[in-house]
Amino acid sequence: xxxxEIVFVTGNANKLxxxxxxxxxxxxxxxxxxxxxxxxxxxxxDLQEIALAKLQQAVHALGPGRPVFVxxxxxxxxxxxxxxxxxxxxxxxxxxxxxxxxxxxxxENKGAYAITTIAYADSKGQLHVFQGKTxxxxxxxxxxxxxxxxxxxxxxxxxxxxxxxxMAKEDKNKISQRGRAFAQLKExxxxxGI
Length: 194
Description:
This protein has six helices and seven strands, in the order E-H-E-H-E-E-H-H-E-E-E-H-H. By secondary structure, it is an alpha/beta fold. The chain has a single domain, classed as Maf protein. Strands 1, 2, 3, 4, 5, 6 and 7 form a seven-stranded mixed beta sheet that branches. It is globular. The model has no long low-confidence stretch (mean pLDDT 93).
């Protein structure tokens, strides 16, 4: 009997691989499939509101009864009272990583936190939200630069003062905001089904 499917709406292959690993890969009781839908991103500071708006669009596009989730991640600087937050993707796209780091040059506090918010619609159409958070420091880029801001974020829990980009995926997934949020989703799915 085939495993039930859950749709992850993303066009990011790195994110898909990482999430598949966190959710159990081939050993999970469901199959993770990707739908790279082009969803409008609500602009705002409320991450839960942004994720739920994206989820509503995904449910509309895929049709009711199909389990689906979306994910949104923010990187917030302590000195900027939460900014760039959900806008980090656009800051990096517009300015590049080096200039994003440079924004904190005149501040002693380089503290930051990352938050991942997952909005999930189960097969009955009920909506669920899961969120993970990790504190860290903004540093000059170290490691690969092919996955967002991983190379400029050094989590406080890093054993060797590594950025996400320098860490082994398994180590990163244990302490990252995405790993924490998806661990909650995984627990929900494994305990209640899809």
